[in-house]
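Comment thread on ticket #2218

A.B. wrote:
> Attaching the input chain for the structure job we discussed in standup.
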Amino acid sequence: MSEREAEQAPQGAGMQISSPPALGGLGRTRCPMCMELFKVPRILPCLHTFCTTCLEQLEPFSVLVLRPLDPGKTSEGARLWDKQPQQLEPQLSILCPVCDTEVDLPPGGVKALTMDHLAIDEVLLQNLQEDTPGVVCDLCSDREVESRCLTCKVNLCQFCSQAHRRQKKTTSHSVMPMKDPKGYSQIKRPIMCSIHRAKELNLFCEQCDQPVCRDCVLGDHREHTYDLINNVIHKHGNSMWELLHSTQPHMDTLERALAQIEGMGSALRSRMDALSADVQEFCDGYITAIREHRDQLLKQLEDLRIQKENSLHLQKLQVEQLLADLRTGVEFTERLLSNGSDLEILITKGVVASRLKKLKKADYNVGPGEDDGICFSPQEKAGQCGGYEVFGAILTKGVDPAKCLLQGEDIHKAWEKQQVTFTLLCRDILGEHMDRGGEHIRVSVSHKNKKDCVLKTMVQDNNNGTYTISFVPEEPGPYTVCVCVRGQHVQGSPYKMMVKRKFRQHQGVFHCCSFCSSGGQKSARCACGGTMAGGYQGCGHGHKGHPGRRHWSCCGATEEKSACLWKVEAESSQRSLVRTVAL
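C.D. wrote:
> Ran it. Output below, let me know if you need it in another format.
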């Protein structure tokens, strides 16, 4: 069928619809773009059909593709090096409005795309079923269609139908009224050649794999293999059926996958809704618990403020009263001693002395009975509130730097290039141990004689009121150690620390006696100078010269972790002592 005939078939047969459906859901007779009945429909490679005019409205874009060179334009050298020379050429493409697939346009553009004749027949069938005016006779093109010749495959008006039956060549043709439902299945029009518009496509060129007319096989397809469409449809139809049957299982698999995805999506939405409700409930409860905890903290602060202010006020009254009594006693005594006679002084001496002694012995505190050592610790666990664990506590015990102590064996003695470690014990104003950490501790260690020698210190918070302080002195000599809490020196800070040169390693053994360490050898000797009867040259338990405790065989030192006391000037004698000890 020609484009003109295809355009005439659906003209005037448009159907008004209330609301435009989504692309791809308009049935088989309406264009997804204009939503009208198809007019000259074309099929894209993605098998979506659109009107020719609608496709021409799409904006094409150009991409570069590799294509084989024309054999006539390929040089001999190129043929030797490359069997199939290729070059980049521009390719016009469009995007399918339904599936967004990139579609390459043929050289002839949109009008070179395959015509969807099935859509044309379906549009015609819909117009006939709906009794839509505008479907005219294929012969006269003036009157409306009333019947169809199943032999010629043309639609006829009443006048042409009668003439069709009277003509000698067509008198035996089967003509069926259009309103007969049996005729709808045979409503298809003959498809005419696009080149020879008066000729019907009734042959199939095997070489070009396309339908042709009789004039085509006399021209461009003259030397090609061809046959009648009725003879080749079985072969090509069967191959299409086989391809269809091999493709359908994929559709079933995808449908099951889609059902699983939709099911998972539904389950996911349900799960998310449930989790959202749980999160909302949890957060609402947590917010309520936090607000309740906030109110408790604020009330605790208010109670502490009232308690401390009352205590300070009572102490203030007591101090004021004692100060007034003292001022009265002092002023009276000064006036008596300055202005009174000897007799008057002696007469009132007993009363005045008794009062002054009583005032002198009065018990009072030089400092405030309360302090402002109140702090808020956000990381402190505060138990549960409303079933939720909450954090943040009011701490009333404040650290007092003057009561903090330094503990450890390495406070005052150290050796070069060996780590020094000691502990800072924090206490409050009452001298009680602090059971929490979080204090700002500042430690500085500097060489007394070398101002540029400042050591790098490390402070580890043990979260129990103690802090481990460590550093490594690189050089021997006197050092000044400063330990500050909240910007104030702790008790004993700053202090001096003497760093000695690295102590000499012991060359002997740390033993109880020579007899035991040598396994009873008589020649074994010890630097402690002890001997035993019976010819034993070394020391033994309870014998003469034994120090009474474990000691080093090389120098006699009784501390295991100590420097060797071996003297350089006594190297010869000491060396002999050390070497005779069996290890």
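A.B. wrote:
> Thanks. Noting for the ticket: Residues 229-339 form the longest helix (111 residues).
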